[in-house]
Each structure stands twice: as C-alpha cells, then as structure tokens.
Design goal:
The protein has 2 helices and 3 strands, in the order ααβββ. It is of the alpha+beta class and about 150 residues long. It has one domain. It has a 3-stranded antiparallel β-sheet, covered by helices on one side.
Length: about 150
C-alpha cells in the first residue's frame, strides 16, 4: 500500500509539470499572436497611408486635367488660398486654389506629407507625394504618378 501512495505523488508531480509546460507553450503562443496583431495593424496603417497618397495624386491629376487653360509649370508651393467660391477666378487662380487645397489635404492625411508637381515634357507631368514612416523615421515613403494632359 505504501508503494501505491508513492506512485500517486509521482503522478501528481508529473501532472503539475505538464500543466506548467502547457502554460509556457500557451503563453508563448499568445505572445506570438499579440506580436502578429501589432504587425498586422502597422501594415494596415501603411496600406491606408499609401491609399491616401495615391488618391491625392489622382485628385491633383484630375484637377489639372479640368483646368487645361493653365500650364501648372510655374506653381509649386502656394501659401494662401484664392477665394474662388464667391467670385469667378482666372485659370491661374484656379490652379493656385487647387494646389493649395491639395497641399493642405496631403499635410492633414499623411505624416509630414509633401507633394510636388514637375513638368516632364510638353504635355507630360509627374506628381510625387512623400511622407514619413513614423515606425522608421529614417525610411520615407513616396508615390509617383505620371500622366499626360
């Protein structure tokens, strides 16, 4: 009978070790799952920023296509917005308004976002939007769109 009691204690101790090992494996798995969730959220946010930059590039291209009377070659940075809501604007003022609105949208949607428009050829333009990756400040992202008017 004393032999039987010793075996039960050994089985109980073995069961406790099994439970501790199972908890260790479970906690490691949960930590890996939490890390995966964090990476997923970061990647999702980067995809969101990329989408916003792409939408802003296409928005400016459409604005430029709708105002073909102005060449957009001399305007790169606009500090004030012309008031085109209350009065008629000339094509140059519409271009200034469009660029001002576009730059404000980029600044509000993208971390440290900037946008530039360069004229490649006679009717070809390139729109480039840059923004900072907050997770890695040394690494910035950009979207470039080239189109013809």
């Amino acid at each position: 009978m004393s032999q039987l009691k010793t075996d039960r204690r050994g089985l109980r101790a073995f069961s406790l070790i099994e439970v501790l090992i199972a908890l260790l494996v479970l906690s490691t798995g949960l930590l890996a799952l939490a890390n995966l969730q964090i990476k997923s959220l970061q990647t999702s946010h980067q995809a969101y920023l990329l989408t916003q930059a792409t939408l802003q590039a296409h928005d400016m291209a459409e604005r430029m296509k709708s105002n073909t009377a102005y060449s957009y070659k001399n305007i790169s940075n606009v500090s004030s917005k012309p008031d085109c809501h209350l009065r008629s604007c000339f094509p140059e003022e519409i271009a200034q308004y469009d660029i001002y609105e576009w730059q404000q949208n980029i600044k509000s949607l993208l971390p440290e976002g900037t946008g530039t428009i360069t004229k490649s050829t006679a009717n070809s333009f390139s729109i480039k939007i840059n923004w900072l990756n907050k997770a890695d400040p040394q690494n910035s992202h950009s979207v470039q769109l080239e189109f013809d008017l």
